[in-house]
Every structure is written in structure tokens, then in C-alpha cells.
Amino acid sequence: MVVVPKTRKEMPVTTLSVPTIGSAGKTGFWRDFRPVMVELVSPCTYDCPANNRLPQIFEKIRDGKLEEAAKIFLETNPFPSITGRICPHFCEEHCNRSEYDEAVSIRSIERFLGDYILERKGEAGFHEISTEKGKKIGIIGSGPAGLSAAYYLRKMGYNVTIFESEEKPGGMLTYGIPPYRLPKQIVEKEVAALTKMGIEIKSGKTVGEDIKFEDVQKEFDAVLLAIGAWKERDIGISGEQLMMSGLEFLGEVNKGLMEPPGMDVAVIGGGNVSVDVARTLKRLKAKPSILYRRTEKEMPAISEEVTKAKEDGIEFHFLTQPVDASKKNGKIVLKCIRMRLGELDASGRRRPIPIEGSQFTLEFDAVIKAIGEGPDTTWIPKKFLNEGGWMKVDSATGVVGENLFAAGDLISGPATVVEAIAAGRRTARSINQYLRGEEIRPEVPLEKPVKIEGINIEYYEPKERAKASELPPEERTKSLDKEETSGISLEKVQDEAHRCFSCGYCRACDICWIFCPDGSVDLENGGKPEFDYDYCKGCGICSNECPCGVIIMEREEE
Amino acid sequence: MQSTKFMESIKELSKEEYLLRGHIACAGCGPAIGLRLLFKALGNKIILVVPACCSSVIPGPYPYTSLAVPVQNIIFEATGATASGVVAALRKKGVNDVTVVGWAGDGGTFDIGIQALSGAAERGTNFIYVCYDNEAYGNTGVQRSGATPYGAWTTTTPTGKKERKKDMPFIMAAHRIPYIATACPSYPLDFVKKLRKAKAIKGTKFIHLLAPCPTGWRYDTSKTVEIGRLAVQTGLWALFEIEYGRFKLNPPSDQLIDKEKRRPIKEYLSLQGRFRKLTDDDIEKKQKWLDEDWERYHKLASNNASDLALCEEI
Ligand SMILES: Cc1cc2nc3c(=O)[nH]c(=O)nc-3n(C[C@H](O)[C@H](O)[C@H](O)COP(=O)(O)OP(=O)(O)OC[C@H]3O[C@@H](n4cnc5c(N)ncnc54)[C@H](O)[C@@H]3O)c2cc1C
Ligand SMILES: Cc1ncc(C[n+]2csc(CCOP(=O)(O)OP(=O)(O)O)c2C)c(N)n1
Ligand code: SF4
Ligand SMILES: [Mg+2]
Fold it and tell me: How far apart are the C-alpha atoms of A441 and A419, rounded to whole Å?
């Protein structure tokens, strides 16, 4: 607000000889460049498969508006209480703050907000449901992909029914990921909230067995296949029938099994399933060893999990490939061969090559294999499948054909919860477009994110990132369902939101305003700058100083 | 680096403006930022005394003015004398809630105005004198002044000035006035705080504001705040106060006593066209002087300024 005394009377204090207060002319015409406020993509939003709008969420947290923060979160991810616990946090990987000191603890903030939401989810009005559309959607599979699609479709006003072959909904959230990482009550509460929104879940109903797929396709206006990837791959060696499947083992434990299959247990594979199996075995008082044919560096498992497995005291046999299994005196004898690493393969990792004559044997009470999973599509009509048995699908929209859609691990192969959630949301969008008779278009891909060079780091000071506390190994290995990672306090959450550079999103800091030599920045619009082009001379100080990189200088037309 | 509280604290500054839009300072003018900050600190219950300098031009041609406070525009050399007169007049009229502020350039302070300022200080005139220092005669087309630093180009030092800059704050310290401070618009909260402190102290207060000038210093107009920041971070401009004779470095300068913490002066010099002709020898010389200055600051900061001209609290 500019105070312009217009008369001599309005002049403050003692009046000397007074010329007319005001400007002799508009200085805007001096300008070659004009400052323009833009909204750009942050690295965290860009890297998050669900494109969670994190800087926007953190702004609300800084302002203490948790409910508004929660609502922005729910626009892209309905289950932050889950991803806040077990997501590999792609968002933190290229956080610009990591080039300054340490990445923002995004996942911990997400968990806090997720729990905040979960406490309120049952409350009426938390999820507004738009007017009923009168159309029915069938979803096959209640993993994160199916649940996420169900959430968004229900919010749009569709009638949603989910078919789930297992007794409990949740897919891998319930039967895969162990409880010490993801407490089952969290999943149960999330599911309960969905039911409260009016989503019907038919558990214990396997499509293709209990119900004919054709009938489902006929009964519903649109059908989403989200059946995950539950078929354990074979290693292809003799004696394989002596081994248990890692997924089956975890499934049994998640259903209540408390006995390990033996004392010395080999776990074959280097992915998340293998690490979860080994760490679960440890908690059942067994002595697990992970056998992997490459080295730690090539392990596809989340690296934090590998570190924790080592802390838990799990043994690793790297560069070890089993070639034969047999039974002897009640033990399983694994013949193995030593590997070495060769050239890069298609996955960008170094290919393991057997070293000739390096055979050796290892003995175990039981062997569990977890070398990768694929979808079971045997019951899906052949016309929807390609030669490899995978769904024929446009992965950007989830469109299969007829009234069918697909999402999640089913089409991507084993991936992550957040990818399944994102796929569920995008496919819900496609289904809506389909049911409205619109052209089905994929979401527009985001522009490349802001780099640290765009941020004026002078306005931040080094501050350690908030770390969630972890149970020490000797404590956590005693219990299967005691959550090993804890949340952080609201105070720390707000500190983290302050640490955020707010890359590409105006943080209403007033810095452009304080430094404008021409006083030509207005902040009346919620503290976000508006430039008075009548007087702004286009010096560019605002753009140079902006701590979020959101003011760009555009050349004026001639 | 500013403190994290920075963003919150600037929000608390007044949104009232007394340097209005439409003034005719160059784009990116450092002194214009300084003027805005002056009003943020002191409000409009002030009388400005402005000699011939850029700031007498900035408000625009008569009959208009962009300065929405009472201003006494006076001759180049008379800031100290005129301010003394205004202070005396206000006292006579019984007005005691108005702050008198001299706002003069470096030419009007270091050179032609030094005797009037010295006299006012010697008489203990109750006013704030702000010397906004753009290190040359900006108004008349960039001629050298006593404030122009060694090696800098001006139109009258085409191959770079051969003399060193005067140490104005310490000249003022020798007057035993109660408050002397340095500041820079790149650190707005520091400047505002010092102005408010000065207002509360009785007697002559001298604030020396380094105010980067894109036109005279030959740099891109968007870099004004950055260059001021670099002046401080390299140690070329130390933020300090001498309060009743007591010397104190202020943040972030107080963290720069250790030479390692100061950024290389080249970062500051290389951004400015006026230093283009500096040789490596010149830079080494400047570095040596700078290090000597900091040794002095270090001593002053650690021994409670006992060797400074002392000022007794009035
Ligand atoms: C052990 C383990 C640990 C993991 N850890 C992590 C982790 O830490 N972080 C992370 O992000 N991701 C992790 N993942 C991966 C993640 O769980 C999956 O990517 C994700 O669950 C895939 O979701 P989805 O909905 O596609 O499938 P799923 O979660 O697999 O759900 C598919 C559902 O479909 C049901 N279904 C299948 N066929 C039928 C049928 N014919 N009729 C009815 N229902 C059917 C299944 O019972 C299941 O409930 C882990 C996976 C495993 C196995
Ligand atoms: C006695 C006298 N000599 C010369 C001038 C011309 N003159 C007006 S302003 C100025 C220079 C001012 O320089 P400075 O005080 O540094 O202020 P700046 O213009 O840089 O803001 C000069 C030389 C004058 N007005 N009076
Ligand atoms: S600093 Fe903030 S906005 Fe930038 S990448 Fe990190 S979390 Fe995202
Ligand atoms: Mg000058």
C-alpha cells in the first residue's frame, strides 16, 4: 500500500516548501525486460511417480495449515500414511537441498501428514464426493493400484466394487510388506475409510475362479484389472521343487505363521522380497543368508533396507549362483558357482559371468527363492495378451480395449507402491474420460525441474535434516510387528518445511519486495508478488534474488 | 547467508512507502533501496536534509517529488550545517518527536561536506547522518571521490584510481560521537536495526551505507544486492558499530575474522567493469590492505576498543 499525501494538510509533521507529491512520469517505459512470476516444477514433484505437489504442501505446513496441506496431498496420493512409511522416496533423490547440505526429509513429513489424515479420514466431509454418476466400475485386485483407482473414481461419483481373491484387502501392503515396516492397522484403517466412502470390497472372490471374468466385464460399465505380479519366477535348476517361494512365505507370515521353515535358511535373490524374507526370518529367530549372483552395488533392493539387513546380522553371499539343489540327511545341499562381473547389461548393471571350475556347496535347513515375480494372466482372454503373456495396454492411460483398463504391477512388473498409486489415479482419470465419451488423453508430462542454479541459496542457512529414529538392531530383531522406524514431531515437520527451498514455487518471502529500488512490487495477492509495470524499470534484482527461482525476466516487445 | 529468521523478519517491516514509484533513479539503484529502507526504519516523522547528489535528482523534476516526507535540498557542502539549523529550529519550536536525517553522498561527505559534518559532530548536534556511498560522484557522471577505492575506474581515473579510500567511520570515531555504524542495503535488517538504534541515541550518529551503483560500477542492474552481499562476504565491507566508543562486528561480518571464511575478493571485483583493469599486483595490494584492516577489526573487537577515541555515555 502506498501512502500518497495529496494536499498540504496531509503532509506529515512540519511542512517546508512543498512541491506536488507524486510522480512526474511513468518509468515503466525505460524497461527492456519485465519480471514475470512463474510456477515451475520442483525436482521432488518431478521425481515422484505420483507427482505429489510437495512445495505447495510444505507452504501450507509452514503456515500451520495442516488440513489444507492434507487436501493437496490427497489430490495426487490418497495413502500418504502408507507411502510415508515404505516409499523408496524418489522425491528425496534429487532434492536441490541435497546439493547444499542434505535433502529435505520429505518422507517423514509425508508420514506425519498421512497419519494426520488417517485420524480424520472417517470424518464426514473430509472426502467430498461429487454428484453420483450412476455408473458402475468393477476393480479386480485390491492392492494399492486398485485402491487408489477406487478412491478417485468414488470421489468422481462412480459406484465402485472391488473383487479380491484374498481374505483381506491391500494386496502386497497386506501380504507382502512385513509388519515391522508397515503396521497392518494402517492398511486396515485406510481400507475402512474407503468402505466408509461407499466403496464395496468383495473379499475372497477370485475372478476367473469364483466369478467368470466375462460376467464382470458385462456387469460393469468399466473394469480395471489391478491384480499385481504374484507369480514367483523359476531359477530353472534341478531340485527347485525343494525351495519355498519368498512371496508365499511372506504371505503365510502375514497371515499369522510364526515358525521359520528351519534354522539355517538360504534366501536366493537380491531384490526387496529377498531382503524382506531374510529380515523376517531373523525376527522368527532363524539364521538367514542371502545368496546373490552379483554384488551389493547391483542389488535392486532399496539400499536402506540392505543396510538394515546387514545391521540385523544377516549374512550375505555375493557372486554366488546356485546351480543345483538336493536333499541329504534332512538338509538341502545347494551346489553353487562363483560369479564375476562382466560388461553392462540391458539393466545398466554389470552382467554376472560364471567362473569355470569354481563350484562349491552350501548346506541349509531350508531354501527360499525370491528372484523376481511376474503377473498370473492365465485366466485373462488371450485377445488382451501379447505373446509373452503380458497385458496389451497403453501404459500412459491404462487403456486395454473394450471396457477394460489395467494398472499397477500387472503391467509394470514388480515396482513400487507409489507407482501403483499413481497408475491407479491416472487410470481412474482415463476411465472417467471413457465413461463420459471423451477422448482418452494421458496426463501432460511435467516440464523439466528447476536446478539448484535457479535457487538463491544465500537466503538459507545450513541445518541438519530431521532424522526419524530407528530401533537399534538388537531391539528390532526381537519383534515382527513392532514398527522399527518412528515418525517425527510436528515441530520437526515444520522445520523441514522451512528447510525446503520451495523450488519453482513462490514462498511469499517478500524478498523481491524489500529489494525493489522502485518500490514496484505489490504483495496484496496473498503475499505473492505482482509487479507494477507502470513503474518497474526492469532492473532484474527481484529475479536475481528470488530464493525459489520463480521470477524470470522476459524481453519486452519492441 | 542470511539467517532463517530473515524471511519472517522482513515481513514485519512497514509496508508504507515514502519513496514513491516513478522516481528517476537508475534501474537497479542501490541508494534507492537504501532510501526505502530508511523510511521503513524511521517512518515519516523525519526531516531529510539532502545536498546536491543523486538523491536530490531521484525525486524527479520540480514541481513533482517522489519523496513523501519534508526535505530540505541544500548545497553540496552544507548537510551538516543545514541539519544543525533544522535541529535548532525544531528545538526552538518545541518539536521533539521529529528525527533530522542528513542523507548525503560520498562526495558530499568525504570531500566537500566534511567540514560541515565535522562541525556538527563536534557540536554534538542531535541528528542522524547517513552517508550513502556509491564510491564516486554519481550525479555528475561518475568522477572519483575520496571514497572511490584503489584501482577503480571513474571518468577522472580512466586507468584506475591510484589512492586508497578514506576510512570515514574512523574519522567520525575521532569525533567521539556516540554512534557510528556501517551498513549495506543487501542486509536490510541490519541497516534498519542500526537506524532505529541511532534514532534512540542522543547526539550525532553517523551511518555509512555502502550502496552499489550499477551505472558507476559497471555491472548488470540485477546484481546490486548480490554485489553488496559479496562486498560483505569478501570482507571488503565490514558491518560494524562503534557505540559509545565500543567497537563491535555485526553478523555476518562477525564470522569473518578468520581469513579462511572470507570469500576471495576476486569474486567481488570480477563482477564489476570498473575493476576490469586491475592487475594481479593491484589485487594483491588490495588483499594485503584488507587483511590489515581485519587485523585491526580483530584487535578492536577483542579489546573493547580501549585504543579508540572514547565516548562517554551522555
Ligand atoms: C515383499 C515385498 C516388499 C515390498 N516392499 C515395498 C516397499 O518397501 N516400498 C514400495 O514402494 N513397494 C514395495 N513393494 C512393491 C509393492 O508392494 C507393489 O509394487 C505394489 O503392491 C503393487 O500394487 P498392485 O496394486 O499393482 O498389486 P498388488 O499389491 O500385488 O495387489 C494385487 C491384488 O490383486 C489380487 N488379485 C490377483 N488376482 C486376482 C483375481 N484373479 N481376482 C481377484 N483378486 C486378484 C491379489 O490378491 C492382490 O490383493 C514390495 C513388494 C513385496 C512383494
Ligand atoms: C560546490 C559544488 N561543486 C560541484 C557541484 C556539482 N555536483 C553536484 S552533485 C555532485 C557530485 C555528488 O557526488 P556524491 O556526493 O558522491 O553523490 P552521488 O551523486 O554519487 O549520489 C557534484 C560534483 C555542486 N553542486 N556544488
Ligand atoms: S528443496 Fe524443497 S522444493 Fe526443492 S527439491 Fe527439495 S523439497 Fe523439493
Ligand atoms: Mg557518490
Answer: 19
Rounded to the nearest integer, the mean pLDDT of chain A is 93
Rounded to whole angstroms, how far apart are CA atoms B242 and B69?
Answer: 29
Instruction: Give just the sign of the alpha carbon dihedral A98, A100, A106, A107.
Output: positive
Q: Select from A467, A454, A424 the least CA-distant residue to A549.
A: A454
Cα(A273)–Cα(A294) distance, rounded to whole angstroms? Answer: 16
Contacts with A502 from chain B: Cβ below 8 Å = none
Which of B49, B76, B155 for a ligand 2 pocket mutation test, highest count of atoms within 8 Å of Cβ?
B76
Q: Which residues pair with A315 in a beta bridge?
A: A289
pTM: 0.91
Provide the shortest C-alpha distance from residue B5 to chain A (in Å).
10
Going from the N-terminus, what domains does chain B have, and what CATH number goes with each?
A: 21-303 (3.40.50.970)
Structure confidence by residue, pLDDT tens digits, B102-120 = 999 999 999 999 999 999 9
| pLDDT recorded at residue A15 | 37
Question: For residues B36 and A540, is the Cβ–Cβ distance under 8 A?
Answer: no
In order of start, what are the domains of chain A with their CATH numbers? Answer: 13-39+506-555 (3.30.70.20), 43-124+450-499 (1.10.1060.10), 136-230+375-435 (3.50.50.60), 231-372 (3.50.50.60)
Q: Is the pLDDT of residue A6 over 80?
A: no
How sure is the predictor about A120, in pLDDT bands with cuts at 50, 70 and 90? confident
* Residues on chain B touching A547 (C-beta within 8 angstroms): 7
What CA–CA distances, in Å, run from A553 to A165, A283, A425, A542, A550?
57, 59, 36, 9, 10
